[in-house]
Specification:
single chain; alpha+beta; Immunoglobulin-like; 2 domains; 5-stranded mixed β-sheet; 8 helices; binds dinuclear copper ion
Length: 363
């Protein structure tokens, strides 16, 4: 899933400038014109391809009623703007060409103002704005509707820089990976532990702020199973751009199984190496910030790690959960996610091995 970020090379570098001291022949001039025209087109193509290859994190593939409403509004406004652009630019081009100055022309007749035209181009955009308002207001109300009594309740709490998810009625706390059953209404209550964050999973719903001291909530009903990427959409400090998470929408049976597992204490270490890892939690200072139920670790500053081995991603959704990535994360947290607040002493290879074995085993 996670691909290397594509490097975008500037296509219109020095090559497109004429070489000094050489005269520009028609051929090199044509080449230069092609280069000037092609470079931006290529750059756009590269960015477009990169955008669709890396992630399905898009508003254009909605999987709930709320997200569909937003997509429909977006597309209406987009096409209205396309039509407006074509009409306005077409009229402009027509006038520029049709009434251009020809040789022998004198000064044209001087006019000031044209009442019918001015009324026309004031009313036309006003009508368009009214149409957009008429479509938008009901969408706002439908997106803000309250949940029914059977809705699953979730508290989502923003932290610098990760997401905590609690299921108050089910007694489960987890981080950075929100599990939801498909086709069941869910009410998500947004809170913040420190600064402003914003909860945004484009395929599920538009963004909504997580505000300290205030509870925002919204209701959705996911219709499609799958893993949907989301991220914080409000600048919240150094690691804001790396504050991601995933929503796993699954069948009721899969959700129940997940729930059952989440409710249990941590799985006991399965090897000697893993047992050493558990002992090293104290040495590494992990116990001060993380909770691993069934051990001495009961910190509440960082994510609950009781079942972290079962999560698909680590470091707030930015790395796939593999032993290699876990090792990279533990040995250089600042290199992986600059600004994050995990404090970890320098570890020996043996200590690292044991911690990776232990944490990977926390299924
Ligand atoms: Cu949290 Cu941006």
């Amino acid at each position: 899933m996670h691909k290397a970020r594509p490097s975008v090379t500037r296509a219109n570098g020095d090559e497109s400038r004429p070489i000094q001291g050489r005269r520009s022949t028609p051929l090199t001039r044509n080449r230069r014109i092609y280069a000037t025209l092609l470079a931006p087109a290529l750059a756009v193509a590269v960015l477009a391809l990169a955008a669709c290859g890396v992630t399905p994190q898009t508003t254009l593939e909605p999987t709930t009623e709320a997200a569909r409403t937003a997509r429909d509004l977006l597309m209406f406004v987009f096409w209205a703007m396309v039509v407006t652009f074509v009409l306005v630019e077409g009229a402009l081009l027509y006038v520029l060409i049709r009434f251009r100055r020809r040789s022998g022309d004198g000064i044209p007749a001087q006019t000031h103002g044209n009442t019918p035209l001015e009324i026309g181009w004031t009313i036309a955009p006003a009508i368009l704005v009214v149409v957009i308002v008429v479509l938008t207001v009901p969408a706002i109300f439908s997106n803000a509707r309250a949940a029914g009594p059977d809705a699953l309740k979730v508290r989502a709490i923003g932290h610098q820089w990760w997401f905590e998810f609690q299921y108050p009625d089910l007694g489960v706390t987890t981080a950075n990976e929100l599990h939801l059953p498909v086709n069941r209404e869910v009410e998500i209550q947004l809170e913040s532990n420190d600064v402003l964050h914003s909860f945004w999973v484009p395929s599920l719903r538009g963004k909504l702020d997580m505000v300290p001291g205030r509870e925002n909530k919204f209701t959705i009903k996911p219709e499609v199973t799958g893993t949907f990427p989301g991220q914080c959409a409000e600048f919240c400090g150094t690691a804001h751009a790396l504050m991601k998470f995933h929503v796993v929408v699954e069948t009721q049976a899969e959700f129940n199984a997940w729930l059952q597992n989440e409710r249990t204490d941590r799985v006991a270490p399965a090897s000697e190496l893993a047992s050493e890892g558990e002992a090293n939690l104290t040495l590494g200072g992990c116990v001060a910030c993380h909770t691993i139920r069934g051990t001495d670790s009961a910190g509440i500053l960082g994510p609950d790690l009781t079942h972290m081995g079962s999560r698909k991603y680590i470091a707030a959704g930015i790395l796939e959960n593999t032993p290699e990535n876990m090792r990279a994360w533990l040995s250089d947290p600042q290199g992986v996610k600059p600004g994050n607040t995990m404090v970890i002493p320098e570890l020996t290879t043996e200590q690292l091995d044991s911690l990776v074995a232990y944490l990977q085993g926390l299924k």
